[in-house]
UniProtKB/TrEMBL annotation:
PANTHER family: AB HYDROLASE SUPERFAMILY PROTEIN YCLE (PTHR43798:SF31), MONOACYLGLYCEROL LIPASE (PTHR43798). SUPFAM superfamilies: alpha/beta-Hydrolases. Transmembrane segments: none annotated. This is Alpha/beta hydrolase.
Length: 326
């Protein structure tokens, strides 16, 4: 019996030693790869100091109206995400894609991700980068809240809004139960390089992009940028804080609700993949979203998922330009 226990202890010690070596090797692999990715991950647009941190904005196009894009929760690189729309919009309007802190090429921040702080940062980066109203905001998913709050705080600067499967404040306040973002296991898998190793498999990459139509309308070089961004932004306190405060932020927007005088177009996917709601619940709130404007309409976009602009960039661009030309 004593010999067996001694042998068992020895096996446990060896197993623990092997695990520690593997974890250490994985952590070293992650750190080396991280530094390499950061060197190659150069901003597509320009960085501006907002509250002492670098905030990124990518701009282009021409015209009197500036289309401002607000990305959804967890969209690692907004520049890549909205890129199928640029060529379609550039001859007619200016456009500006900002990265909230924790996204794209922007820094992370220690400031709480409450809706007024986020909105003030957006306003400041637009000013610093030389953008001029009128703005036509395009909000995807959770980006709807900052879009509406911006219009509430700066109504004279907004010409209209297009929601791309954007959630209504009523939905985020009444019917959203998101799981915790991240956690110890996720952090361990990231910091020991497990997630990074998984992304060497094409099947894993394709699975991660399935809700975005496998980035069908995105050039290969931008897909590489998207992959780097995904790996660099996996563990992100700012994204986690946005999720944690989503209900509180929705309440702030709801408390200031008055129907806007400018146009609002609500584009709704006919298939849900990442909204945390059933189709019936989501569709109910999407139909009622039109109550936010005196000039509102809803368009249900067939055969699309949550990232409608990755499935039907032509239709999304047309709806944006329809408001821009008014």
């Amino acid at each position: 019996m004593k010999k067996w226990l001694k042998r068992l202890r020895k096996m446990v010690v060896i197993a623990l030693a092997v695990i520690l070596v593997l974890l250490g090797s994985g952590a070293l692999y992650e750190q080396v790869s991280l530094r390499k990715d950061l060197k190659a991950y150069t901003p597509s647009g320009k960085l501006y100091k907002v509250d002492g941190k670098n905030m990124h904005i990518y701009t282009g196009g021409q015209g009197d109206v500036t289309v401002v894009f607000a990305s959804g929760l967890g969209t690692a690189n907004p520049y890549v995400d909205f890129s199928p729309l640029y060529d379609k919009l550039a001859p007619y309007v200016k456009y500006a894609v900002y990265d909230r802190f924790g996204y794209g090429y922007s820094d992370t921040t220690d400031k709480k991700r409450d809706i007024d702080t986020i909105t003030n940062e957006i306003h400041e980066v637009l000013q610093l980068s030389g953008q001029k109203p009128p703005y036509l905001f395009v909000g995807h998913s959770l980006g709807s809240l900052e879009t509406l709050r911006f219009a509430q705080k700066y109504p004279d600067e907004v010409k209209g809004i297009v929601m791309v499967d954007g959630g209504s404040p009523e939905f985020y306040y009444n019917d959203t139960e998101y799981p915790a973002y991240g956690g110890f296991i996720k952090s361990l898998l990231i910091n020991t390089g497990v997630f990074r190793m998984l992304f060497h498999f094409d099947s894993v990459i394709e699975s991660s992009r399935s809700i975005r139509n496998n980035l069908k309308f995105v050039p290969d070089e931008r897909k590489e940028v998207d992959l780097k961004a995904t790996l660099l932004k996996l563990e992100n306190a700012n994204m986690a804080d946005e999720l944690r405060l989503s209900r509180t932020n929705a309440k702030v927007v709801l408390d200031d609700k008055k129907p806007f005088p400018f146009p609002l177009t609500v584009l709704t996917s006919d298939y849900l993949g990442a909204t945390g709601a059933s189709n019936d619940v989501w569709n109910k709130y999407e139909a009622e979203f039109t109550s936010w404007s005196l000039q509102a309409k809803q368009v249900v976009v067939k055969d699309t998922e949550h990232y409608i602009h990755q499935y039907r960039p032509d239709l999304v661009a047309d709806e944006i330009l329809a408001i821009a030309k008014r």
